[in-house]
Structure formats: structure tokens, C-alpha cells
Amino acid sequence: MSVVELQPIQDEPALLQKEKKLLIVADFHIGIETELQENGLHIPSQTRLMQERLITLIETYNISDLIILGDVKHNIPTSTIQERSDVKLFLDTIKTHTTLHILPGNHDGNISRLLSEDITLHPSDGFVFEGIGLSHGHRWPTEDVMQCNQIVVAHTHPTIMLTDRLGYRTFEPCWLRAFCNQKKLHAKYPKSRNPLAFVVPAFNPLCGGIAVNKDPILGPFNSILDIQNALVYLLDGTALGKVCDIK
Asked: What is the CATH number of domain 12-245?
């Protein structure tokens, strides 16, 4: 199987396959502002801003296929009327610019009710597109996904915790490039080639995330990915080295 080159877009949490005109993004969590408001944080909706950013990327790179890798919406198990309206309008707007694929995440219960017929809804345990294995990350993916040379995983909202000389901590969204622990991988997926995994940051800046040099990643991939030896890249492209070396 040939390997297609996946490239993060500088300063955006978006993964590009230029030749195939494919864009992969994840974790919009439309409606998260409601939860923040209940906790005393009054923040304007980010939906319109995310929509504009995404359309700019689609037009800049002439994208033919857009894959949203889960957690389009936020509130579970139910959604507010406003959230449902925002999600539907967001998706209906985006689909006018490109072919849209949705892989539902753990926050996307009943999202099928919000999709028009020309938006493709894929199984929640992942699928393969142009030779790339795709998984939100909250479920074990299929055998087909894990037999790809490259896989893309969301769900964790990876960040890196940076500490200065005075002990002040900052958390920056980041990309991870990781391989699996061979023994653990083949115990679950005997036919897997040990794919290169890209763990993608959240598109919504309000999501927060997991500091991967402090805490384990979320979901079953924590059991098989060798996160300590994963390479870390900031959104601006800065390479920070391995997770295990960033204190």
C-alpha cells in the first residue's frame, strides 16, 4: 500500500493531504459555551469563527473532501435547541464548499438527525479513506483501520505543558506523531503493520485538552500508542522533541 503524505497546516489544527485535496479536522464541540456559561464563564459563540476559518482553509487548498473526525457537537446526552440549530447551519454551510464526511465521536449522539442526505456519516469505529485509517479515538477501531500505514486519531485534544524557570506553567495545543507499542498492538491487532499515528488537536480553542507530558491520553489508544516516545509539534510547526524529554 502506498503512503500518502499528511501535513499539518501551519497555525491551524488541520491535517492536509495535498495531492488528494483532503482536509482532516476534529473536535468542534459546537455548544460548549453553554457548559462554560453554567460554570460562570460567559464567552461568545465560536461557531461562526470556526466556520469562517474552515471555509478559508477549504478555499485556500481547493479541498475536495473534508473529514470531521468526531465531536461536531458538545452536549450529551441531549442538546439544546440552539446547539442543534447551530450544528445544522454549520454543517449545511460547510457542505456547500466541499464534500463533507462525518465520523461521529462520543459527543455526537443522534447527530444523524442533523445531517442532510448529501453529508456522509461513517461508522463510529472508524473507516479508511484514500489509504488513511481514521478514528475519533473513543472506541477501538476496526481491523481495516489498524492495517493502514497511517492513522489519524482525535478525542484527546493534545496539549503540551511548558514550565518556565519560575515554575509558571502554560499549555499549548500540539500535534503528536507516534507509533505503537509492538507487543500491545499485536495482542489486539495481530495483522497490523504498526501504523504511524497522528493525534490531532481540537479545532475549537475553548476545548482545553490533555497535557500529554503529564497525563495519559484518552480512550483505548492509550493502551497501544507509545506516547512517551511520540514527537511533539506546536501548531506553528515548532518541533519540541519527544514527550518523555519535555518536563
From this structure: 3.60.21
